[in-house]
Amino acid sequence: MIPLLFNLLYIPAALLYLPILLYRMVVLRKSRRGWGERLGGAPRRAGDRSCIWIHGVSLGEINATRTLVDALREKNIDVCVSSTTDTGSDAAARLYPDLLRFRFPIDFSFCVKRTLRRVRPNILVLMELELWPNLLEVCAREGVPVAVANGRITEEKSMRRYRLPLVSTIAHRMVGQLAWIAAQDGTYAERFQRLGVDSARVHTVGSIKYDTAQVTDAIDGADALAEALGIDRRAPMIVAGSTGPGEEEILLDAFDPLRKRIDGLQLAIVPRKPERFDDVARLIEARGFRCVRRSQHADGPQAALPDEGDCPVVILGDTMGELRKFYSLASVVFVGRSLVPMGGSDLMEVAALAKPMVYGKHIWNFEDIDRQLMAADAARKVMDASGLSAACEALLANEHASTAMGQRARTVVTRNQGATNAIIELIDRTFAR
Fold first, then answer.
1. Which of 131, 202, 258, 396 has its CA 20 to 30 Å from the CA of residue 104?
2. Tell me, what's the pLDDT at 159?
3. What's the pLDDT score for residue 70?
4. C-alpha–C-alpha distance, residues 339 and 335, integer Å
5. Which of 40, 25, 61, 7 is nearest to 116 (CA)?
6. pTM of the predicted model as reported, rounded to 2 decimal places
7. What is the maximum span of the chain, computed from C-alpha positions, in angstroms?
8. Residue from 143, 58, 71 nearest 426 by CA
9. Where are the beta strands (DSSP E) in 294-390?
10. Every domain range in the chain assigned CATH 3.40.50.2000
11. Burial readout 295-323 (b: 16 or more C-beta within 10 A, e: otherwise)
12. Could you say which DSSP state residue 157 is in?
C-alpha cells in the first residue's frame, strides 16, 4: 500500500520537475546519461556470491568509498557501486573500472524492485544519507538490510526539513527501517536518535574520509602537472580547491592586491563542478587576468608562464581527478564552497597533506573536523575577501609557522582514522545475522 501511495505522489511531482530536467539536459548538458539504469535497468550481476551494494550520491561520497571498497574486495564477495550524479558516475568509473556500476534507481517501487532483482544484493550501504521511502519499503519486503555508513545529518537543512508536519512521520518510518547507522561523530549520532532511530542501532565510528585522506608529502603526477603548466616551484602559490559560484570573484579580489605585495605569487583555481569551468575561465579573463587552462596543457615540458605586462596569469584546473595534485603544489590552500553558503568541501585531504589551509565560515558539512582544526590551531577561518587576503599573506610571510600549522592539521587526521574497520565489523555482523 505504501509503495503504491508514493508512486501516485511521485507522478505529479515528476511532471512538475520535467521542465527543470529538460533545462538541465538541454542547457546545462547534465543528467543525460544512465536513464535506463535509473529506471531499474542496472546490469545483471553474474554468479551466486554474496554481494554488497554501496551507494554514493556524487563525487564526494564516491571518493569516500575507497577504503571501504578496498577492504570488502579482500573478502570472497561481490561489490557493486551506484551513484546519482554525472560526476559521481565518472568518479566510480575511474576508481572501479572492474566493478559492477550503475545509476541509482529513481524511487518508483517498480524501478527499485527491478534493480534489486538484477543486482541481487545481500546488503545495501548508503554513504552519508540518501533515504527514499520506496527504496526502504521494497528492500524490507525483499529481505535486503539497508544501512548508512559515514552518516551525517545537518541541523540547518535536513533536521529542519524532517521536522515538518507529515515529513516527520515519513522520516521516522524510514529511519526505523535502517539496520544500523555508522555516524561520523556524536553530534550526528544524537540527531539520528532525535529522528527516532533506536540508540542500539546508532554507532559513532568517526568519518571514513579520515581513512581515505592520503597522508603523504608527495602526490603522483604533481611534478608533471607543474611542468605542464609552467608553475614556478620556487615561488609561492595559493590553490583554491572545490570552489563554488560567487567564490571565484572573492578569490580574485583577494589575489589582485596580494600579488602586488608578494613577488611571484601564483593562483590556481579548481572549481568543484565541471559545468562551471567555462564560466570561471570567462570570469578570470574579464577581471584582467590571463587564464591558463589545465585542459589545454598536456603533461610535458612547457615554457614558464610569465605575466604579460599588466595581464598576470591565473591557472584554472579544469580537469577531473587532479585536485590533490594541485593541493600538493600549494604554499597555502583555500578550501572552497565555504565563503558562500554551500557547506564547505573536504578538509581532510588538505590536512593529510600537511598544507596550511584557509576556509570560510560556511562549513556545516564538516562540523567535527572544523572544531578539531580550530581547537588545534591547525587552520584559519575567514569571513570575506579581506580576511582571506590577510590570512594568506600572514601564512606566506612565515613559512615556519605555516609549516607547523600544516603538521598540526595532519595530526588531526591521523588520530581520527579507523572508521573503515568499524564499518566492516558492522557489515560482518549483518552478514552473520
1. 202
2. 80
3. 94
4. 9
5. 40
6. 0.86
7. 71
8. 71
9. 313-316, 332-335, 357-360, 380-382
10. 222-414
11. eebeeeeeeebeeeeeebbbbbbbbeebb
12. I
* DSSP assignments along 251-310, one per residue: HHHHHHHHHHHSTT-EEEEEES-GGGHHHHHHHHHHTT-EEEEGGGS-SS-------BTT
**CA–CA distances in Å: residue 205 to residues 150, 178, 198, 420, 424:** 8, 17, 16, 8, 11
Residue 346 CB contacts under 8 Å (≥ 6 apart), including other chains: 60, 63, 209, 213, 242, 335, 366
CB-CB neighbours of 240 under 10 Å? 29
Q: How far apart are CA 371 and CA 379, in angstroms?
A: 10
Find out whether 424 and 370 touch, Cβ atoms under 8 Å. no
pLDDT exceeds 60 at position 76: yes
Rounded CA-CA distance 76/172 in Å is: 35
Q: What is the pLDDT of residues 127-176, one digit of tens each?
A: 998 899 999 999 999 999 999 999 998 877 778 888 888 788 888 899 99
Domain with CATH 3.40.50.11720 in the chain: 30-206+418-432
**Mean pLDDT (whole number) for 299-310:** 58
Cell numbers at residue 311, please? 595581464
Predicted pLDDT at 302? 61
Q: Which residue has the cell 568509498?
A: 65
Give 211-252 pLDDT, tens digit per residue: 999 999 999 999 999 999 999 999 999 999 999 999 999 999
Please tell me the class of the 30-206+418-432 domain.
Answer: alpha beta
- The CB density around residue 52, as the number of other CB atoms within 10 Å, is 22
| Residue corresponding to grid cell 542500539 | 200
Distance separating alpha carbons of residues 43 and 244, to the nearest angstrom: 34
- Collapsing DSSP to helix, strand or coil, 333 comes out as strand
Q: Are 283 and 293 in contact (CB under 8 A)?
A: no
Do residues 294 and 316 lie in contact, with contact meaning Cβ atoms separated by under 8 Å? yes
With a CB cutoff of 8 Å and minimum separation 6, the contacts of 293 are 277, 281, 316, 318
- CATH fold, domain 222-414, is Rossmann fold (3.40.50)
